[in-house]
C-alpha cells in the first residue's frame, strides 16, 4: 500500500485487508458507480447521433419498400419522387386538423393525445396508442394507389416497428418493412430478411365479407390470407399477426382505411 | 520488468507462439460467428482489442484492492461497461457494421479471452505491462479473425471488403462461390485447419496426449 500516499484515514482504509466486509462492499459500490457513470455518459452523449442513424435507416427502408412494389417506381417519379405525408386522426378516421407532420412530435409529447387501449382489445401489447399517426400516400391521379401505415407492437424480446403497405383496394398487402426490432438473431430476427418479407405482397387482409383474416401461418401458408411462419420463432410470428391485426382493426387504422375506401382522402 | 525487450516479448508472444485462439482455444465463439466477411471481422477484432486493453488497464489499476470473494463479478462489471460503451460508439458511428455484428459485440463480455487475460495477467501485473499483454492478445485474436474472415469472404462470395476479386461464374467469370464458406461450420473447419497447420509448424504447441494444464493458463470455455 506504500504507493497510495493519501490522508491517514483514506490510506488506513485502503490498507485494510481486501476481504473485510466493509471494503468488499465499498469496492463493489465504487466499481458499479464508476461503471454506471461511464455507461450513462456514453449513452446520453451518443443518443442524438444514434437517433439520426435510425431515422435515416427507417426512411431508407420505407423508400426500399415502395420501390420494391411493382409499378410503384413510375408512380413515385410521377409524383415528383416524394410520398404524400398526412397526419391522421385515428379515432375520427380523417386527416387531423391542427397537427402537421412538423408538429406531430410535439403533439405526441402531450399525454392527452394518447388513448389507453382496453386490455381485451390490446392485441399488439401496446397499452396505449397515440391519437395521431403519420401515414404516407401515393396517388395515381385522384385515386390512392398505395398507403404506408407505420405499425408497432410488442414482439418476443421487445418492440417491433414496421411499415405496412396496402394496395389501392385497401385489402391487399403490398409489402411490409420491419424498421426496428430486438428479436432473437437467426430466429425471430429473420423477420427483417427479404426472404420472409417477400411473402407479404399479394396477401389479402380481409375476405369478401369484410372480416379480418390476415395471419402469419404456423408453417407454410395455406390460404391467400396467410404468410409463411418462421420456424423456431412462433412467438415472433404470432406477434406479427397480432400487430397487423390490431393496426388494421377498429382501434388502429380501421377508420382511416374505411375513409380511404370511401374516397375521402 | 520494464526493459523494452520484455515489452516487445509480451506484445509479440501472443501473435503466433502463444496465440490465444489457436493455442489456448479461447474466444472462438465470436471468431466463428463474425468472420463471414472481412469488414465485420475487422470491426470485431478492433472492438475486442480496445475492450481488452482498457479492461486490463482498469483492472490492473485497482488490482490491489479487489476483494477475492467478488473479483470475478468486479471484472465482469468493468468489462461489460466497456463493451456497452463500445457498442454505443459503433451504433453511433458505424451503424451498418453494428447491425451486421448485432449481438456479438455484446457477447465480448462473455468472451473467455477477455476474462482470461484480466484474471490471469492483469490482476497480478502493473497497468503498463497488463495493457501491453492485453493489446498483444487482442492482436493475436485479430490476426486469426482477419485470416478466417479473408478466406471465408474470398471463397464464399468472391469478394474482399465488398469488392469483387474473383470473377463470378454467373457474371461470365470462372469462380463459383462456395456457400459453405458463409455458414458457421466452415469457421470450425478453417479454425481447425489453422490450429493443425500452426502445430505442425511449431510442434512445441502440440499438447501431450495426457495433457495436464499448466497452472498459469485458464481452460477454454
From TrEMBL, chain A:
TM spans (from-to): 25-46
Domain called FMN-binding: residue spans: 155-251
An example Gene Ontology molecular-function term: oxidoreductase activity, acting on NAD(P)H, quinone or similar compound as acceptor
Annotated Pfam families: FMN_bind
Enzyme Commission (EC) number: 1.6.5.-
Keywords linked to the UniProt accession: Cell inner membrane, Cell membrane, Flavoprotein, FMN, Ion transport, Membrane, NAD, Oxidoreductase, Phosphoprotein, Sodium, Sodium transport, Translocase, Transmembrane, Transmembrane helix, Transport, Ubiquinone
Family annotation (SMART domains): FMN_bind
PROSITE patterns named in the record: PROKAR_LIPOPROTEIN (PS51257)
GO biological process assignments: sodium ion transport
One GO cellular component term: membrane
Name assigned to this protein: Na(+)-translocating NADH-quinone reductase subunit C
UniProtKB/TrEMBL annotation, chain B:
Transmembrane spans: 45-62, 74-94, 100-117, 138-155, 175-198
An example Gene Ontology molecular-function term: oxidoreductase activity, acting on NAD(P)H, quinone or similar compound as acceptor
Origin superkingdom: Bacteria
Keyword hit for Cell inner membrane: yes
Bilayer disposition of the protein: Multi-pass membrane protein
Location in the cell: Endomembrane system
A single BP term in Gene Ontology: sodium ion transport
EC number: 1.6.5.-
KW Ion transport (keyword) present: yes
InterPro entries recorded: NqrD, NqrDE/RnfAE
Encoding gene per record: nqrD
Keywords (A to Z) from UniProt: Cell inner membrane, Cell membrane, Ion transport, Membrane, NAD, Nitrogen fixation, Oxidoreductase, Sodium, Sodium transport, Translocase, Transmembrane, Transmembrane helix, Transport, Ubiquinone
Any one annotated GO CC term: endomembrane system
UniProt protein name: Na(+)-translocating NADH-quinone reductase subunit D
Amino acid at each position: 500500500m506504500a504507493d497510495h500516499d493519501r490522508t491517514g484515514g483514506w490510506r488506513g482504509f485502503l490498507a485494510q485487508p481486501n476481504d473485510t466486509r466493509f471494503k468488499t462492499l465499498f469496492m463493489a459500490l465504487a466499481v458499479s458507480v464508476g461503471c454506471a457513470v461511464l455507461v450513462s455518459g456514453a449513452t446520453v452523449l451518443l443518443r442524438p447521433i444514434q437517433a439520426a442513424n435510425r431515422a435515416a435507416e427507417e426512411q431508407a427502408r420505407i423508400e426500399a419498400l415502395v420501390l420494391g412494389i411493382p409499378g410503384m417506381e413510375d408512380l413515385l417519379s410521377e409524383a415528383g419522387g416524394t410520398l404524400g405525408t398526412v397526419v391522421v386522426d385515428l379515432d375520427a378516421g380523417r386527416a387531423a386538423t391542427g397537427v402537421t407532420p412538423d408538429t406531430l412530435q410535439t403533439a405526441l409529447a402531450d399525454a392527452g393525445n394518447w388513448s389507453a387501449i382496453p386490455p381485451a382489445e390490446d392485441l399488439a401489447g401496446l397499452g396505449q396508442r397515440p391519437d395521431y399517426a403519420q401515414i404516407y400516400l401515393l396517388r395515381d391521379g385522384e385515386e390512392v394507389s398505395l398507403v404506408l401505415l407505420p405499425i408497432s407492437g410488442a414482439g418476443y424480446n421487445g418492440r417491433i416497428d414496421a411499415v405496412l403497405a396496402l394496395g389501392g383496394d385497401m385489402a391487399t398487402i403490398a409489402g411490409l418493412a420491419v424498421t426496428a426490432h430486438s428479436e432473437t438473431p437467426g430466429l425471430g430476427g429473420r423477420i427483417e430478411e427479404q426472404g420472409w418479407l417477400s411473402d407479404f405482397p399479394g396477401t389479402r387482409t380481409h375476405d369478401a365479407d369484410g372480416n379480418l383474416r390476415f395471419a402469419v401461418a404456423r408453417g407454410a401458408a395455406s390460404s391467400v390470407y396467410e404468410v409463411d411462419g418462421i420456424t423456431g420463432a412462433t412467438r415472433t410470428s404470432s406477434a406479427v399477426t397480432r400487430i397487423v391485426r390490431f393496426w388494421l382493426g377498429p382501434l388502429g387504422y380501421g377508420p382511416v382505411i374505411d375513409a380511404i375506401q370511401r374516397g375521402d382522402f | 520488468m520494464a526493459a523494452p525487450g520484455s515489452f516487445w516479448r509480451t506484445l509479440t508472444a501472443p501473435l503466433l507462439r502463444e496465440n490465444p485462439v489457436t493455442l489456448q482455444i479461447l474466444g472462438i465463439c465470436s471468431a466463428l460467428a463474425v468472420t463471414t466477411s472481412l469488414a465485420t471481422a475487422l470491426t470485431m477484432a478492433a472492438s475486442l482489442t480496445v475492450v481488452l486493453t482498457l479492461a486490463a488497464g482498469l483492472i490492473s489499476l485497482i488490482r490491489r484492492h479487489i476483494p477475492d470473494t467478488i473479483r470475478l463479478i468486479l471484472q465482469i462489471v468493468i468489462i461489460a461497461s466497456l463493451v456497452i460503451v463500445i457498442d454505443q460508439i459503433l451504433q453511433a458511428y458505424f451503424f451498418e457494421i453494428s447491425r451486421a455484428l448485432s449481438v456479438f459485440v455484446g457477447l465480448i463480455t462473455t468472451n473467455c479471452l477477455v476474462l482470461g487475460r484480466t484474471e490471469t495477467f492483469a490482476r497480478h501485473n502493473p497497468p503498463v505491462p497488463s495493457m501491453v499483454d492485453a493489446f498483444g492478445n487482442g492482436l493475436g485474436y485479430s490476426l486469426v479473425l482477419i485470416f478466417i474472415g479473408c478466406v471465408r469472404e474470398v471463397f464464399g462470395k468472391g469478394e474482399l471488403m465488398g469488392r469483387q476479386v474473383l470473377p463470378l461464374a454467373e457474371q461470365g467469370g470462372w469462380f463459383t462461390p462456395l456457400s459453405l464458406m458463409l455458414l458457421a461450420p466452415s469457421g470450425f473447419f478453417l479454425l481447425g485447419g489453422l490450429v493443425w497447420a500452426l502445430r505442425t509448424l511449431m510442434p512445441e504447441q502440440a499438447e501431450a496426449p495426457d495433457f495436464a494444464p499448466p497452472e498459469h493458463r485458464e481452460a477454454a470455455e
